[in-house]
Recover the amino acids of this structure.
């Protein structure tokens, strides 16, 4: 579930046991999400910068990946920009597009 009314959006997740969102030690700040033009390329970039993949939905046909950021005790989530329009339709109808990391211009 996400907050409504526009960015920044706050997502509340109840993580089932064994899922990437499982929190056996209790409630916590889990991740900061970013839209990206290419999840796989962004994921490779973050790995090269020392942020290991914690979980990727890509092998399961889900366009997102989480990377561990030990310095903040949380993760970065990359989400495919193609999912933004359906997200906005549901959580912020008529809302303006949000910025995204353009992996093609990062080289």
């Amino acid at each position: 579930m996400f907050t409504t009314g526009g960015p920044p959006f706050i997502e509340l997740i109840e993580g089932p046991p064994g899922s990437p969102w499982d929190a056996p030690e209790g409630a916590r700040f889990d991740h900061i999400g970013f839209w990206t033009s290419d999840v796989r390329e962004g994921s490779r970039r973050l790995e090269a910068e020392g942020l290991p993949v914690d979980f990727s939905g890509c092998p399961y046909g889900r366009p997102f990946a989480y990377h561990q950021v030990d310095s903040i005790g949380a993760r970065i989530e990359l989400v495919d920009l193609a999912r933004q329009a359906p997200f906005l339709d549901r959580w912020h109808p008529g809302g303006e597009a949000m910025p995204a990391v353009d992996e093609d211009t990062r080289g």
About this structure: Residues 31-102 form one domain. The chain has a mean pLDDT of 92. The first strand starts at residue 31 and ends at 36. Helices lie at 39-48, 84-91.
